[in-house]
Design a protein that fits this description.
By secondary structure, the protein is mainly alpha-helical. It has five helices and two strands, in the order ααβααβα. Strands 1-2 form a two-stranded antiparallel ribbon.
Length: 122
């Protein structure tokens, strides 16, 4: 069961890297990955009964840095193309992300996978 969930989580990242590395075959790579994601999500939905919780606190800092980098990139694209909507929305999201990350929260578990979250993969 966890193999399906691992596939659902890691395959989009691997697909993006492969599509960037092999731009000539990007359409084929994305099509195959989409079919695999659909199959894995259907199998996970029908074979999944209970929920499990995973504490992945070691991923918090890399994901936070990637969030800031991605929003910074969007802001750069908005500034470079002189598109005020993109620039404004990226700056608003950066401010909200910074404000939310400044609060100290303890939720216990970082990732909770249940039947509904597996269904949302579909």
């Amino acid at each position: 069961m966890q193999e399906y969930l691992l596939t659902l989580f890691l395959l989009p990242f691997a697909t993006a890297i492969a599509a960037l590395a092999f731009k000539r075959y990007a359409g084929f790579i994305v099509s195959v990955a989409s079919a695999l994601l659909i199959a894995a999500s259907i199998l996970a939905y029908y074979s999944y009964e209970a929920s499990f919780q995973l504490s992945a606190s070691y991923l918090a800092t890399p994901f936070l840095l990637l969030d800031f980098a991605l929003l910074g990139y969007f802001g750069y694209i908005g500034f470079k193309s002189q598109n005020k909507k993109i620039l404004f929305l990226s700056l608003i999201q950066l401010a909200i992300l910074f404000a939310l990350e400044s609060y100290e929260t303890t939720t216990g578990f970082d990732i909770v996978v249940d039947k509904l979250s597996v269904f949302m993969f579909l």
